[in-house]
């Protein structure tokens, strides 16, 4: 008999759902612009079976893809599991075989050597395939219309690492996918590889190098001329795994590093810069003016992940987890090793940064955040997100004026990551729509919201209502029908 543990990762707002669904023509309040034509894909972790070891973190749930298809003012919904090695082997066995998050020492011996990835972190289309991503394994390719799983994607036999980032960037000018892999020569190794993948779906360039220390390299920045890798001390070791500790822990005694690789350079051309300890994960955008590089990322004073505890045993400090969008800058023409890491772009707290991706890698004006406004009233039935975040506002930042606007979702709802939809290919930057999932916690169901991207404070122009509940998702992307 299936029974999930009575722990925070599996109860309340984090209760497993474990369904697949097709719903044609969702009920809509308001009017969805008929010019929105394509699909919004998003992914969520959802455990297929109770954890092998009695408890687990929410980040280890099996990947499920949601597809919201827009056409002529109508929205259709499709929801499917990603059939990873883990999902297939456990589905056949009828119970969990893989153990703790990123700890193969806790697995059933029958699955030794198989990919452990859950494909639960990001999803996007490229070269005609839908790619479900988890950074400890290769991408999983799926059909972008049916959500049928094809299998692991090796880009025509050209992928040389067993891992692949969950945050690749698409170059708006060339159509290339810019990507990387960490732990690229095996678990806990310092080896990384930078990839350029062409629109034909094949790797056409790779550069191998080592980072100063092994860490969770979740995201990175790309400009027209450089790739930028931020090394933040969410660290691990074989000693941690052998002791059964959480894979990652945060080390407040280590410096952070910024590695800058010229996009046309080799490993010998990479430079490393340093700054004092902090927490930073996602990247809003990066751009350069000659040798001067700007890198925009939400920064917190301390660790934001309570399930990746302090390596020195200090208790989790929620007062130090407020992240604020910050601009780091470094000059490749300088001779020093430090970089500026303290230019605040807003005092609002937020995460999951997004932009109009047509302006990726260049100077840009419009940015969007999942805001965390503790001054607003909240009554969160079922609790906060799996990471403990209170995401209750959608925030628009105008970098040209420094002004912000926001929309508050109410005391019994929470928001997931947003995604930008251009009004047309030739529309000005920021001229378009935002879409995102809203968790109606008191009703135990979800809505899909659509906003005018330049008038966020006016609230959604349309709401597509789901009769069911989606779990807290991680990332998603828009694909036009064309």
Produce a short descriptive summary.
3% of the residues lie in helices and 39% in strands. With 482 residues, the chain is mainly beta.
Give a structural overview.
The protein has helices at residues 85-93, 238-242, and strands at 21-23, 27-30, 38-45, 63-71, 74-81, 122-126, 129-133, 140-142, 149-152, 169-170, 177-182, 191-197, 203-210, 221-222, 226-231, 234-235, 249-250, 256-262, 271-275, 279-280, 285-289, 292-300, 324-331, 340-355, 366-371, 393-398, 404-408, 413-415, 419-422, 432-440, 445-452, 462-465, 476-480. By secondary structure, the chain is mainly β. A hairpin with an 8-residue loop joins strand 11 (177-182) and strand 12.
Number of helices: 2
How far apart lie the N and C ends?
46 Å
Shape: globular
Radius of gyration: 21 Å
The pLDDT mean sits at 96
| Coarse structural class | mainly beta
Beta content: 35-45%
Q: Helix content range of the residues, please?
A: under 10%
Low-confidence stretches: none
Note the main sheet: 8 strands, antiparallel
Total strand segments: 33
